[in-house]
Specification:
Layout lengths: L6 H6 L2 E3 L5 E3 L2 H9 L4 H6 L6 E5 L30 H16 L10 H7 L4 E4 L11 H10 L3 E6 L4 H5 L7 E5 L5 H8 L6 H13 L4 E8 L8 H11 L3 E6 L18 H15 L2 E6 L4 E5 L27
Parallel strand pairs: 3-4, 4-5, 5-6, 6-7, 7-8
Antiparallel strand pairs: 1-2, 2-3, 8-10, 9-10
Helix pairs in contact: 4-6, 9-10, 10-11
């Protein structure tokens, strides 16, 4: 695992190691869904059942960016396609088993409905993010195939600097997230500290690739006050390259290791994110579909048709509400 063995530290932070290079960690919102029936913004925006969502990574020690806003461990990663990796069949089985171990203690909680806990034992969704850059895992296609065979939907989150891996995806994930966290090359260099000089050009290439992929595509802008919040026209130009189904501006959260690199003054208020989203909607022609103030996230979409609950209609530049079910 990288240049040093950090397994003890990762375990202490709540990671369940599922191999030499993979791990599962209980999401805060999985717990909230079990105990209080509250789903995360992915549930609100995309119809995910948070108590049945498994958060994992096949590449905990591989990443080619060192983003200042990242809450994860850094400084010990491999930044190229992994030469050693965990078997995808074992990875899926061990990930589900790890999730079940994590959730075992909730069974006797009087606040947890037994039927909901039983549902959580069979994850119906896998969020491939958590830590590291998952497209550096060379068996991603097989892992996605195994999830599909079991009726499990997938969100693959990538920093977009590995375009060849995106071009080679087959099958595609249910939803592909591409993080676009800077409006230009210089801000990108200073904020994400890329391992490769051409990382910005790789990201631009990925956005062109994403435009033609026949799956649900989301561009996420993680916004840090004083670093990358602003430049609406530049972000709109980048979004136009990918022409995604959805754009998701989201505020930086002061947590984990990011607290060693950034301060509380870098955390934007939700009103700032919403104002940015409204300006971006005006520039791109997208609609503001929904928002999650507690997660400091806003959802923009290309269309409002068939997206909303009865009686809830969006307005351009103003937030509406309604979940969009994930296709299986």
């Amino acid at each position: 695992m990288g240049d040093q063995d950090l397994s003890s530290e990762l375990a202490g932070q709540g990671y369940q190691l599922t191999g030499r290079h993979s791990a599962v960690k209980l999401c805060y919102w999985t717990k909230e869904s079990l105990v209080r029936g509250r789903d995360c913004y992915k549930g609100r925006f995309y119809g995910i059942e948070s108590h049945r969502c498994l958060q994992m990574s096949p590449a905990i020690d591989s990443c080619n960016l060192h983003c200042r806003f990242c809450w994860r461990n850094q400084g010990w990663e491999n930044d190229e396609t992994m030469t050693e990796y965990d078997d995808p069949e074992l990875l899926l089985e061990r990930s589900i088993a790890a999730q079940q171990r994590i959730l075992s203690g909730f069974k006797g909680d009087p606040e947890v409905e037994l039927g909901r806990w039983e549902e959580a034992q069979s994850p119906r969704h896998v969020a491939i993010s958590l830590t590291g850059e998952p497209t550096l895992y060379p068996k991603m296609n097989r892992f996605l195939e195994l999830c599909r065979e079991r009726g499990i939907t997938t969100f693959l989150v990538t920093n977009g600097t590995n375009p060849e891996a995106l071009r080679a995806l087959d099958p595609l994930p249910t939803q592909l997230y591409v993080s676009v966290t800077a409006p230009n090359r210089e801000v990108f260099r200073r904020l994400t500290l890329p391992a490769h000089d051409d990382a910005w050009e790789r990201l631009l290439e990925s956005l062109e690739i994403v435009r033609g992929l026949p799956t649900r595509r989301v561009v996420r802008h993680t916004l840090v006050r004083g670093w990358n919040l602003g430049w609406t026209e530049a972000y709109a130009d980048l979004d136009a390259r990918a022409r995604p189904d959805f754009i998701e501006p989201k505020g930086y959260v002061y947590m984990g290791r990011s607290r060693q690199r950034l301060g509380r003054d870098h955390v934007p208020e939700h009103d700032e994110i919403r104002a940015f989203a409204e300006r971006l909607a005006a520039r791109t022609g997208y609609y503001v579909l929904d928002e999650s103030p507690e997660s400091k996230a806003v959802l923009l979409g290309r269309s409002t048709e068939g997206r909303f609950l009865p009686g809830r209609e969006p307005r351009t530049g103003a937030a509406g509400s309604g979940a969009i079910p994930v296709a299986s």
